[in-house]
Please model this.
Amino acid sequence: MRIGLFGGTFNPIHRGHLYAASEVIKRFHLDQIFLIPAALPPHKTPGLVARAEDRLKMINLAIADISGLTVSDVELNRPGPSYTIDTIRHFKSTLANDAGIYLIMGLDAFLEIHTWKSHQDLLEEIAFIVMARPDDDYADAQQGWRILEVYLKSTLSSDSQFDAELACYRLEGKQPVYICDIKALDISSTKIRELIKKKQNIENLVPPEVAGYIGLKGLYK
Model:
């Protein structure tokens, strides 16, 4: 059994999230990906994030007909801020001992991992799948991977080495960090929220069920 854990605020979930998750399932031959909405993300500003129950409902609506994707409310049921290390340990304690577990995230998030709680323990306990999406800091995936390599060597492990056959970085005493080139979709939750405030159409950015729910609940206005 090969399992992916894809956390985030999902504020709201959009087609970019769904495309990335589906591509990772195919490329890494995963059996399932858990989408894990954060309750109180430590790096987010309270008040700008929709209620947990609304974000959870939107995820359920978005993945209803997508094979291999499911949602976990483990972080929503935990009091206090959502820390990834606690979530990883939860899944490791509940899944089969021989399950392969991968933590999926974007390059932009991974480049801040040294600021996360118990980040060294996190790197030791779970393999990463890092996706590059061009942004203001890098023009394409190849430039992103060069930034990642510098970050790994300068901040996380000076002896990190790239394994070209497996497309991953190996860090001494830690789990592999796999890289995954995924064609970027020009979609972000921030952009969606801005369009909603301007009363512009978002139906090409999110599944229609999600757009309907946002309109019904009056979210992000």
User: Anything to note?
Assistant: The longest strand covers residues 2-8. The mean pLDDT is 91. The radius of gyration is 17 Å. Residues 57 and 213 are 9 Å apart (CA to CA).
